[in-house]
């Protein structure tokens, strides 16, 4: 706080006595709740309002929970066509699903989600006008959250971010907090909003030499790409003497793709060796790798690739670089259309409604598909085999022309190029309700809401494993031709035994188009009543206020992959995907109360208590109770203290419950396998090994064992306790200045997660726990074929984070400081200090901390300090506004440097740290004749590259860096115009 105070003090040191007493600016990225006052009515007003985080209507509403507010002007001033790009700059928000994610099983989904405090998007509740936004994707568990692509950015009046549990007010999913998008009401007139932006980057990163050493093409010089365009039209009119309004909105947005091959620092993934970074190459490569086996023992007798007229020994340098085959920004096209209105029949009855439509089309690019060490039967008479290949594969081990050789094939479909997952999301959301005042001081709000997202995916460029196996069985045909051995008339033989042997016709046969469809659906009926009890305590001026209500909600999910996915026939998804179908409903009642204890008394300008409780009955999770208790105290007008405790719950979502269970592969070393097992017989027996099997379990090929993954219908709800303590200062000797600090402590128990197979197996062998999660092959005792380790969703340990949010804001007329009409200056600052981010993945084991770390276990960086400071100048008359923003992310360390059991490990020292990053953004707004606004700006002015590492993991990993957390495309230049008529 001292640095904040010094900054503010320096601004006002020269002319403190002349400080302007005007209202300070609404804090842009505030981590505290100084902006709670921005939610209050203007001075002298008495209209009751609702503050996000409570349903109680009050003329002087404030919040005991920290609230940050982003205004509509702030959205425009950043040139953001994607709301997630704006939100990710706030210190409380961590990167999640978005346009910069890499394609893959845990990567891009074509959605955009919010992740508060890095507690996961499934623990952040998203609202529009105080009502839920439905889930956005049925296919990927990482995207089982509200898709903010549904939010019409040009219609947003403000974004309220409430950090900390809010389940007592809004229900499940609010363990980390709530993000509420408030849309413009009573819009009148016609408004056009248009914006365009482009990325410019100067390639000059020293890491380029690593790619060049691996023989990769590296871009040089300046690149200009990633064009973004957004066009929006809003029309609204008031009618019936202002008792009604109808507003319509339509927006078209298009974003061009940017490939990893267009940035020198993204040309290849990285690995760390003893001398420095090197390109991380995949052993699944082209030309193919062939592992020849001994037909008598089944053991591998050599790995080969193509060279000269036949095979040569495979070398690690033969690996395939897939780092330059993805996108840094996926091409995306979106349409939003919305209509909303309200009409007051009488003070007791106001009819309102909303209808929102969104269609988003994303082209998610993936690397050329890989056939990952698949055992193939290749006939020794195959005419594509050279004499040397036939001798090595067949003759040398006694196989004749009529025999078949079993060969483990690993191959990238480099001739076919990158795959493309064309993903569509089409969403509908309708709300209809009645509200009004039915008695003095008492109002009601009742509504019905329906939301649905339809999903479709069309994957091109992948390979059918069945067709590939057919095409490998080549035999001589008529007139010197080569044909397939089988009966499929469409089959075209494929020649993977020559570097130039794969033909377009063969690719046309083995490649396919694979589809998935699905939906999520949400139906809500809700009613609430709020008012005052007419009871005022002796030392208070305002009465006790309450709110109570009931809600019914039903959610459904459906997901249908085609038969290629469900039969595990898709090479790039050989684990398979399976149908999902499920639903749950919940019936809830809730209540809140606010009790003013004392007001306008010495050292008791205001003292109030508030509480809330929600009882929920889930058809799946049973009964849950969430509650909150809080207090605020203003001893004097300059100081406001607040504290709250919230007990929140989160019922498991539909994918966590009903995701299909299937056996996938996990890379782990079984200490009970081999002729001389590492573990004792007693330890192995606890995991299911019999005396006859001990010492005779064949090692799993490539250490790839079975893991049962998927949903768990027996999950219990997560439970969370959130504590916050805060202070807000509005010193009267510094009018217009606000300082806040809030401490937060959030702990999530009964965490819904998966326990990695390696941890489960080691816990069983070493501690005798979790052995019931291991199912060995009854005949062989191995963890392959019908053996596996259970890694489905479970209620496990806990997740805890603590820290402090600080914020400051000030506004000053320079005339009062300098005696000259030089306009207005303002400063807004917010920062978050993360003191602890702790995970206990297995109950009873040592927890590990990820605060200040990144890496294979912790995932994206969790910096101990992030801040954002904005400095604005408004010219005399208000026609011009200039803004500079400074964003800071502190350095983080490789989690392998930790001494925690689940983190410690080997790493190269030069890969041990991600440096601190600072970004500077400029923006200028020009207001012309009250009708036109022109904005120009540059984000990441100095074109800072993201910090690079070989230790990335998680859905925000895009090769050698973490997308979303860091700017990854260079400087962003934008221009926008708003025209009002």
UniProtKB/TrEMBL annotation:
Q: Signal peptide position in this chain?
A: 1-33
Q: Where is this motif: TonB C-terminal box?
A: 964-981
Q: How does it sit in the membrane?
A: Multi-pass membrane protein
Where does the TonB-dependent receptor plug domain lie? Answer: 63-178
Segments forming domain TonB-dependent receptor-like beta-barrel: 412-941
The subcellular location is: Cell outer membrane
Any keyword Signal? Answer: yes
- Annotated PROSITE patterns: TONB_DEPENDENT_REC_2 (PS01156), TONB_DEPENDENT_REC_3 (PS52016)
Alphabetically sorted, this entry's keywords are: Cell outer membrane, Membrane, Receptor, Signal, TonB box, Transmembrane, Transmembrane beta strand, Transport
Q: Which PANTHER family match?
A: PTHR47234, TONB-DEPENDENT RECEPTOR
The UniProt family comment states:
Belongs to the TonB-dependent receptor family.
Q: What is this protein called?
A: TonB-dependent receptor
């Amino acid at each position: 706080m001292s640095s904040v105070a010094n900054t503010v003090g320096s601004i006002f040191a020269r002319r403190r006595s002349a400080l302007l007493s005007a209202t300070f600016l609404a804090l842009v990225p505030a981590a505290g709740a100084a902006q709670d006052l921005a939610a209050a009515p203007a001075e002298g007003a008495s209209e009751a309002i609702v503050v996000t985080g409570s349903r109680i209507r009050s003329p002087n509403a404030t919040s005991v929970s920290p609230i940050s507010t982003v205004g509509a002007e702030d959205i425009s001033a950043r040139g953001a066509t994607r709301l997630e790009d704006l939100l990710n700059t706030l210190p409380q928000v961590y990167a999640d699903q978005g346009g910069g994610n890499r394609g893959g099983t845990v990567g891009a989904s074509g959605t955009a989600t919010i992740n508060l405090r890095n507690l996961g998007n499934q623990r952040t509740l998203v609202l529009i006008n105080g009502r839920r936004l439905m889930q956005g994707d049925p296919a990927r568990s990482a995207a089982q959250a509200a898709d903010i692509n549904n939010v019409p950015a040009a219609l947003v009046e403000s974004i309220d971010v409430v950090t900390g549990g809010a389940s007592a007010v809004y229900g499940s999913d609010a363990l980390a907090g709530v993000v509420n998008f408030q849309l413009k009401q009573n819009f009148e007139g016609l408004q056009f909003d248009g914006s365009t932006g482009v990325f410019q980057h100067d390639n000059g990163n020293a890491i380029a030499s690593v790619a060049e050493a691996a023989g990769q093409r590296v871009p040089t010089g300046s690149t200009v790409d990633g064009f973004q365009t957004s066009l929006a039209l809003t029309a609204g009119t008031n009618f019936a003497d202002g008792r009604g309004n109808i507003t319509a909105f339509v927006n078209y947005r298009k974003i061009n793709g940017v490939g990893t091959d267009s940035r020198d620092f993204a040309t290849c993934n990285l690995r760390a060796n003893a001398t420095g970074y090197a390109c991380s190459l995949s052993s699944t490569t082209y030309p193919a790798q062939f592992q020849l086996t001994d037909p008598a023992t089944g053991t591998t007798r050599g790995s080969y690739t193509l060279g000269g007229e036949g095979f040569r020994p495979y070398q690690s340098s033969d690996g395939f670089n897939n780092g330059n085959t993805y996108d840094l920004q996926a091409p995306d096209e979106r349409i939003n259309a919305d209509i909303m209105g309200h009409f007051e029949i009488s003070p007791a009855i106001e009819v309102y409604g909303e209808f929102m439509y969104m269609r988003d089309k994303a082209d998610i690019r993936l690397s050329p598909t890989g056939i990952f060490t698949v055992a193939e039967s290749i006939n020794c008479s195959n005419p594509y085999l050279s004499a040397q290949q036939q001798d090595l594969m067949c003759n040398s081990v006694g196989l004749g022309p009529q025999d078949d050789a079993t060969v483990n094939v690993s191959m990238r479909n480099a001739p076919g190029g990158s795959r493309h997952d064309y993903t569509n999301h089409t969403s509908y959301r309708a709300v209809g309700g009645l509200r009004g005042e039915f008695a003095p001081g008492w109002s009601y709000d009742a509504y019905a809401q329906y939301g649905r997202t339809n999903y479709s995916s069309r994957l091109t460029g992948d390979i059918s494993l069945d067709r590939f196996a057919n095409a490998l069985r080549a035999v001589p045909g008529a007139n010197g031709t080569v044909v397939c051995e089988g009966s499929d008339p469409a089959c075209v033989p494929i020649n993977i035994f020559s570097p130039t042997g794969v033909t377009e016709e063969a690719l046309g046969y083995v490649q396919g188009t694979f589809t998935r469809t699905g939906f999520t659906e949400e139906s809500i009926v809700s009613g609430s009543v709020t008012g005052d009890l007419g009871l005022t305590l002796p030392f208070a001026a305002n009465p006790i206020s309450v709110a109570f209500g009931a809600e019914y909600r039903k959610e459904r999910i459906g997901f249908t992959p085609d038969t290629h996915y469900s039969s595990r026939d898709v090479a790039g998804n050989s684990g398979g995907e399976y149908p999902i179908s499920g639903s749950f409903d919940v019936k809830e009642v809730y209540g809140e109360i606010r009790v003013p204890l004392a007001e306008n008394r010495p050292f008791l300008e205001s003292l109030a208590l508030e509480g809330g409780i929600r009882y929920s009955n889930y058809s799946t999770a049973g009964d849950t109770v969430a509650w909150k208790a809080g207090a605020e105290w203003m001893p004097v007008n300059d100081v406001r203290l607040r504290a709250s405790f919230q007990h929140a719950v989160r019922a498991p979502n539909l994918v966590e419950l009903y995701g299909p269970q299937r056996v996938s592969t996990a890379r782990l070393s079984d200490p009970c396998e081999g002729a001389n097992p590492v573990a004792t017989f007693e330890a192995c027996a606890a995991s299911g090994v019999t005396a006859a099997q001990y010492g005779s379990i064949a090692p799993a090929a490539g250490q790839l064992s079975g893991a049962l993954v998927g949903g768990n219908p027996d999950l219990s709800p997560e439970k969370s306790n959130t504590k916050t303590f805060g202070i807000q200062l509005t010193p009267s000797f510094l009018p217009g200045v606000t300082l806040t600090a809030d401490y937060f402590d959030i702990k999530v128990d009964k965490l819904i997660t998966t326990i990695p197979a390696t941890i489960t197996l080691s816990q069983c062998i070493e501690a005798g726990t979790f052995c019931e999660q291991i199912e060995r092959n009854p005949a062989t005792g191995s963890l392959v074929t019908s053996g596996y380790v259970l890694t489905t969703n479970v209620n496990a340990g806990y997740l805890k984070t603590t820290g402090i949010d600080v914020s400051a804001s000030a506004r000053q007329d320079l005339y009062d400081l300098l005696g000259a009409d030089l306009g207005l200056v303002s400063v807004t600052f917010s920062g978050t200090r993360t003191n602890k981010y702790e995970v206990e993945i297995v109950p009873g084991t040592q927890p590990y901390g990820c605060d200040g770390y990144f890496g294979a276990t912790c995932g994206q960086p969790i910096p101990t300090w992030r801040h954002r400071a904005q400095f604005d100048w408004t010219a005399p008359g208000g026609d011009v506004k200039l803004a500079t923003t400074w964003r800071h992310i502190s350095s983080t360390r490789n989690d392998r440097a930790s001494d925690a059991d689940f983190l410690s490990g080997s790493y190269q020292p030069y890969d041990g740290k991600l440096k601190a990053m600072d970004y500077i953004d400029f923006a200028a707004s020009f207001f012309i004749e009250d009708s036109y606004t022109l904005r120009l700006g540059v984000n990441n002015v100095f074109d800072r590259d993201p910090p690079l590492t070989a230790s990335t993991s998680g859905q925000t990993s895009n090769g050698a860096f973490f997308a979303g957390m860091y700017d990854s495309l260079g400087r962003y230049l934008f221009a926008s115009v708003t025209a009002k008529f």
